[in-house]
Design brief:
The structure is a single chain. It contains six helices and two strands, in the order αααααββα. The protein has 230 residues and is mostly helical. The chain has a two-stranded antiparallel sheet with strand order 1-2. The N and C termini lie close together (12 Å). The N terminus is likely disordered.
Length: 230
């Protein structure tokens, strides 16, 4: 019973930290985006997310960068809890690669686009680790007893597709993407793919927290039954 209670506590850490990561990042990114776009409109999708952290051009850059720092730290803590909760190999891989994702988010907050070289390396690490994470999640969904839900599976597929699209547009010589077309700025594929990946990851964090919340209720019910049978 001690192990069950210990796992229950770790489940709570995953729930709170994953939801906190989603809320913090949503607030920081959303507020910086609305201010930068001067309101809510379709032009918001044409603003590259990384430019919101530019201290020279974004008035809410400090909010954006601090949200990445705090959100990435929360996600990292959630992955530490995942590593200590689920002993199977795929879950351990998810925790390790997810930890790398969390570290890369923190690094993007510490080194915004003003530190261009370091920011490019951090964002490249984020892109590759995110694709790898969701590929493992895709495999984890089909294992017996998986905690991955259909919503998480769908979001992983969206993230993989968005990530692979970004890879096709990736300039390896600069570790960056080509600038949006001057003639057709309203059709910036890079920005659209970045926002799709960002939103899919935030929603994935929310689904992870809610999924583990359901697991907590089932686990708590099992503990109560165990106590009643003693």
């Amino acid at each position: 019973m001690t192990d069950r209670v210990r796992n229950y506590d770790l489940h709570l850490v995953i729930v709170f930290m994953s939801l906190a990561a989603a809320v913090i990042c949503s607030f920081g990114v959303g507020s910086a985006l609305i201010v930068q776009a001067d309101g809510i409109n379709l032009d918001m999708l044409m603003i590259r997310p990384d430019t919101l952290g530019d201290y020279m051009h974004s008035s809410f850059a400090i909010v954006f960068n601090l949200s990445l720092l705090a959100g990435g730290s929360c996600f990292l803590l959630a992955m530490v809890a995942v590593y200590n909760t689920f002993p199977d190999l795929l879950s351990r891989y998810i925790a390790i690669i997810g930890g790398v994702v969390g570290v890369s988010i923190v690094l993007m907050g510490v080194f915004p686009i003003n530190f261009l070289d370091l920011h490019r390396k951090a964002s490249t690490l984020y892109l590759f680790s995110t694709i790898f994470l969701h590929c493992i999640c895709l495999l984890d969904y089909f294992k017996p007893g998986s905690t991955m839900t259909k919503r998480m599976l769908s979001l992983s597929i969206i993230s993989i597709c968005s990530g692979l699209l970004l890879l096709t547009l990736f300039d390896w010589s600069q570790l960056d993407f080509a600038e949006c077309s001057v003639d057709l700025p309203q059709y910036c594929i890079v920005s659209s793919a970045m926002w799709t990946l960002t939103q899919a990851n935030i929603l994935w964090c929310i689904c992870l927290g809610l999924s583990l919340l359901t697991t907590i209720k089932i686990q708590q019910h099992s503990v109560y039954q165990f106590l009643e049978t003693r």
